[in-house]
Amino acid sequence: MYAAYFRGEGETQWKLLRGDTHENSVTFDADALADGKYFFRVVASDREANPPPTAREAQLVSAPVMIDNTPPVVTIGVVRHSAAPRTLSSKPPTPPPPCGAASTLWTPQAGCPWPPPMA
């Protein structure tokens, strides 16, 4: 049986994300969290199969995970007029942080390099 918790950086209280589940993965809407660094903790227990005096549990805490719900910003540059078609330049959104930095939830910790951007 598993339970999953989270807490923001600088917080001491763990908040229950999902408890008493047999699923080995948890999906949730990260938009519900404010921007910032978070830690996630998974607790595994064998209490369903063992009486209280012999039941065991283990836990694992993640590395910090950066939640950033800020939408990307595209900056429009100068429109150039000439005999050819008009040209419009723009800057791409800010790239993701480098491998090894705190990452967003959709990026596996061991999955560097970053996945290609979606079209």
Description:
The chain is mostly beta strands and 119 residues long. The chain has one domain (2-91). Helix content is 0%, strand content 36%. It contains no helices and seven strands. The strands form two sheets. Strands 1, 2, 3, 4 and 5 form a five-stranded antiparallel β-sheet that branches. It has a two-stranded antiparallel sheet with strand order 6-7. It is rod-shaped, with a radius of gyration of 22 Å. Residues 99-119 have low confidence and may be disordered.
List the helices and strands and how they pair.
Layout: E1 2-8, E2 15-21, E3 36-45, E4 57-61, E5 65-67, E6 75-80, E7 87-91
Antiparallel strand pairs: 1-2, 1-3, 3-4, 3-5, 6-7
